Structure formats: structure tokens, C-alpha cells
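Methods: example folding runs. The two proteins below were folded one after another, and each record is reproduced exactly as written to the output file, sequence line first and C-alpha cell line second.
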Amino acid sequence: MKTTLLLLYALGALYFAPSVRAFDHSHADFNEVLQKYVDDKGMVNYSGLKKNRSVLDSYLDKTGAISESEFNAWTHDQRLAFLINVYNAETLQLIIDNYPVKSIKKIGGLFFGQPWDVKSVTLFGKKTTLNHIEHDILRPKYKEPRVHFVIVCAAMGCPPLLNQIFLPETLDQQLNDRGRYFMAQKNKNKLDGNTLYLSPIFSWFAEDFTTDGSIQDFVTPFFPSDIKGKKLKVKYTSYDWSLNKQ
């Protein structure tokens, strides 16, 4: 009897261990946060989220506990959706950890460097940075330029934060939808005569957008008007680093 009880206890402990439980790819906890604190225009109620942060913190505890081997066993779209959601959730957490703040660029200071270099992120059980997710994992390993439409830097100049999570089964469609939404924002991207004004994101990450042609070629499927084949001069709009707060 004693041996049986010990076996049952061991099996129960194994079942409830965070590293063994299957990860919820519906990202339900983070979706709850987005639905409650982000509006349809991507503006965030940081004050409310800071006062009620337990769901966000719990979600990031779960994502941070995922092992690299478990992550690598997932499908491509499960991994990509996970990284996008975690990046956005960690950005929200970074802001509320320092809120009130006028801009994400005010975080970090001279001691830490830029906010994207602050070790505020937990990934695969280790402390790391937002820059690590973006520049060491997302960009070089997935080579998906549309991620620039969906990973959000908490600034008015960046693509608006979607108030729902990214799902593996709908990821391709969501990336396209957010691309069209971003390109339709005339304060960031517009056509004026023969000049195509684009967000400086397309300049900063030009190498990501020009693997199969020019930047104009890349944005054409997402642009609200027909610019295919037109000879346009490309210029870049200014970037607004003020906080995307409600």
C-alpha cells in the first residue's frame, strides 16, 4: 500500500509540474489582458493594468517556464505566435514596472542602456532582453518580415497593438491583416504624388524587407491604393516615441 501511495504521489507531482503540462496555445490569459486593457486602436490603459497586473504576471510566469526543448518540439506557427505574444506581453510588463512614464525610451537610463537591453524578460527559464527575442531569435531564425507589423514597442509610432492574441492556426491571416491596417495609417504611410512616405521601420529593418525585391515591392500588397509597378520615390515619416496610452 505504501509503495502504491508513493507511486501515485510521484505521478501526481509529475502531472502538475509546470514543465510537463502542455502549454495552452490559445494564450487565454494574455488574451484576457488585451481585451480588458487595450482598445480597438491599440491604446493601452496602463494605469488600470498596473493596478490589476496579476493575470499578465501569471501568463509571463507560465511562458517563462517553458523549456527550450519543449519550445523546439512545437510547430513553426506555434513557436512564432508564442514569441510574438511573449514579446508584446513583456513590453507591457516593462511599461507597468516603470509606470508612469512618458515614453519607453525613458526606461533603462545610462546605467542599463536602452530599454530593449534591460534584462526584464524571462525566456526558457533565463533572464534576457526584448532585443534578444527580436534580433537573435525572431529576425534571423524565422525570417518573417511581417513580424514588424505585430511586435509593438509601446509607442505611438509603432504598429498599433492588437487587442487579441496571435494564434498559430490563424497567424498568416493575422499578419496580413495587421500589415494592411498599419499601411492604411496615413500619419505613418501614405502616397503623395510620386512620393511614397513610409514608416521609418522600413528604413531601420530594410534588409528584412528587401530579400525578394525593393521596399516598394514588399509594401505593395498591403498598401490601400494600387502602387504596383509605379516609379515612386520613397521617403520616411517621423517616428512618435510617446507612449501609446489611453
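Second run, written to the same file directly after the first:
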Amino acid sequence: MSENNPFPDEGNTGHIWDDNLRELSNPPPNWWMMAWYASIAFVIGYGLIYPMIPLANTFTKGLTGWTAISEFNEAVAEVEAMRKPNEDKIAAKTAKEILADDELSAYVEASGKVLFGDNCAACHATGGAGNDGYPVLADDDWLYGGTIEQIQATIANGRKGMMTAHAATLSEAEIDTLASYVVGLSEGKADEKGKALFQSKACFACHGMDAKGMAALGSANLTDGIWRFTEADQLASAKRTIAHGVNAAGDAETRNAEMPAFKDKLSEADIKKMAVYVYKFGGGK
């Protein structure tokens, strides 16, 4: 600040630097003052109409009592009212009957997409494309059956794969022979030695005499080239599965294969929707 103001009649604040640079005390423009007063009026008006000021245990409600939550709840109620006719039909019909109703099936397909994304896509990928260790849902290869009823049962009750670990009962050579046999089956190759061992070790008891699996047991079809557990070396992967099994108790190298049950997480109607949605990927039987 300058001790001696060289511009006493200018109306400056007295803040002067380098004897020339100074701060003036001119009033703000009228348009600026009008905007300032208008903003004050707006804040007061907003506070009177809408919730605004937080208090110790509550907040000012405003004259309208409006809240974002109440608006959201109203919107949800409106959507639910629109959906109610279809939701009532879903509750009254079986999943198979829903599939037969083109209009209802289309509705379920749209709403099922959200359910699938929230509950299934993390494991089975978008569109049911599958991931390593998690089956593809868009093909016609089903461990526990691909009818709409079987799919619904799988979603509701979950599934837990089970295969005995054979490392303690088979020699390394026998494991090699069986692994080569099942990989060869998937490639259309015949191996009489492997087939004989497959039968003598009673592998057919779970996988069937034709090695095409049994839906009742959830055993895999070994002839189609579709592998739940994929690795760069599929032969080595098959050896591991034979040796250490699937969900075999006490084996640290066993494969893990379990799908959780959704009957306690989703409503019966939502499970029907999921079953129809998965069925319509194209692989349902």
C-alpha cells in the first residue's frame, strides 16, 4: 500500500503498487448486481420449496415434501404396474408354458437378460459363451440335461460335479492310456486298447458304454470335443482330471465344479425367467 496516494480524487482503495498499479473501488456493473440478487432469491425460493438444509436428525422438508427417493419409488411403482399383467401370467404358468406363449416369452427374454447379467454372466459369460471351468450355455451339450424343466431344476437347486480321483487306483500308464482314449474319442479316433481299459475299469458306469455321458449323473460326454476344463495341452488336462477327479475330497489337485443354488436368492418367477432365457440361447432341447 502506498503511504501517499498520488491519485486522491480517483476513488481508489489506496492499494497502489509501483506508484501506478492500483485497486479501484468502482461499484460492480448493474447486470452483475441483478444476477447476484436473483441468485439469492433463487436459493431462498428453492429452500422453501424443496428439501435443503440438514439438521441434527432430519432436514428441512420444503413446502412440497419432494425427495429423490419418493420420485424413484413412484417411478418403480409405475413400472411394476405396467409389468404386473405379465408377471401374474408368469406366476401362473410353468416355464414350458411360458415358452409356448410367444408374447410372454419375448417379455421374459427381455427381463431375463438383466437377471442373467446380475447372477450368471460372471461365470458363464455374456450370451452364455462360457469360461474355462464354466460350461457354455449356448450349445446343445448339457451335463444334466437341456430340457426347460432340467434347466429350471439346475438353476433352482444348483449342481455339484463329482468324479472319483483315480491316482491311487490306476497306474500312470493306465491314466495315460485312458486320457489318450478319451481325447481320441473327441477327435473321432478309435483305440481298442483304451476302449478295453475304459470298460474294464468301469468308466462306462458313469459315462455310458458309448462314452456319451448320463444326464442323471451329470457325467460328461467324452465323444464331442467339448471340454469343461480346457488347457493348451488337452491330453495333460485329461490326465489331471482322471488322476485327481472332480470335487474329490482330500485331493488338493482335484477339479472344482459347483454351481450354487438360486432358490433361496431368486423368486420362483425369476427362476422361470432365467430358465426360459437360457433355453432360448439356442441349445435347449
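Comment on the second run: DSSP finds eleven helices and four strands in the chain.
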